[in-house]
Design goal:
The complex is a heterodimer of chains A (about 120) and B (about 110).
Chain A lengths: L2 E5 L2 E3 L5 E8 L7 E7 L5 E7 L5 E3 L7 E6 L4 E6 L8 E9 L6 E5 L3 E5 L2
Parallel strand pairs in A: 2-11
Antiparallel strand pairs in A: 1-3, 3-8, 4-5, 4-9, 5-6, 7-8, 9-10, 9-11
Chain B lengths: L3 E4 L2 E4 L5 E7 L7 E6 L6 E5 L3 E2 L7 E6 L2 E6 L9 E6 L5 E2 L3 E5 L1
Parallel strand pairs in B: 2-11
Antiparallel strand pairs in B: 1-3, 3-8, 4-5, 4-9, 5-6, 7-8, 9-10, 9-11
The chains are: A mainly beta (about 120), B mainly beta (about 110).
């Protein structure tokens, strides 16, 4: 059974930093494309960042230069380092597996999400 | 950025009725379109990928069609558990989601 469990969310002041973690089990982690997707309260979904098995990364323009995605294959873990946080970064952050041939992928397994609140 | 426009925003139907949801892309995405269902307080669940392929465990009442810029998700006969918000997502370019269609009980 595939499980993705996020942690690390919380309340942070504008300009602050937070590191999200996602531990994944039940699949071959080192072969897996992974992504962080967020959802602001009452709003739609936004892809934030994406990482390949080899460690290649891309991210949304809205977080470029502020957020960094990384992975530790030995720990079956995905991370999102979030710096220079803004009020508009407030959202539930989901980690998810990206599948499918071709670009990026559709996300067939999701975590339960972790809430990040940026407020003074 | 490829913009996905979903319509209608809200669909009010009764159990047993047919639901037809639309997703239109601002430029061609080929067949790289997926549909997700989200219930309150839960993560989205993949329903359809690559326009017309049902994900594992998804009932046959869910079907997807379309290519290029126009896509449709059809629920042939609504069950009580189908009332939720539905999102489309493209992956032809940096992935983006549509704004969602809420299917509510009439």
């Amino acid at each position: 059974q595939v499980q993705l469990v996020e942690s690390g969310g919380g309340l942070v002041k504008p300009g602050g930093s937070l590191r999200l973690s996602c531990v994944i089990s039940g699949l071959s982690f080192s072969d897996t494309y992974l992504t962080w997707i967020r959802q602001a309260p009452g709003k739609g979904l936004e892809w934030v960042s994406y990482i390949s098995p080899a460690g290649g990364t891309t991210c949304a323009d809205s977080v470029k230069g502020r957020f960094t995605i990384s992975r530790d294959n030995a720990k079956n873990s995905l991370y999102l380092q979030m710096d220079s946080l803004r009020v508009e970064d407030t959202a539930v952050y989901y980690c998810a597996r990206a599948s499918g041939s071709g670009p990026y992928g559709h996300t067939d397994h999701w975590g339960q999400g972790t809430l990040v609140t940026v407020s003074s | 950025e490829i913009v996905l426009t979903q319509s209608p925003v809200t669909l009010s139907l009764s159990p047993g009725e047919r639901a037809t949801l639309s997703c239109r892309a601002s430029q061609s995405v080929g067949s790289y379109l997926a549909w997700y269902q989200q219930k309150a307080g839960q993560a989205p669940r993949l329903l359809i990928y690559d326009a017309s392929n049902r994900a594992t465990g998804i009932p046959a009442r869910f079907s997807g069609s379309g290519s290029g810029t126009d896509f449709t998700l059809t629920i042939s006969s609504l069950e009580p558990e189908d009332f939720a918000v539905y999102y489309c997502q493209q992956r032809s370019n940096w992935p983006t989601f549509g704004g969602g269609t809420k299917v509510e009980i009439k």
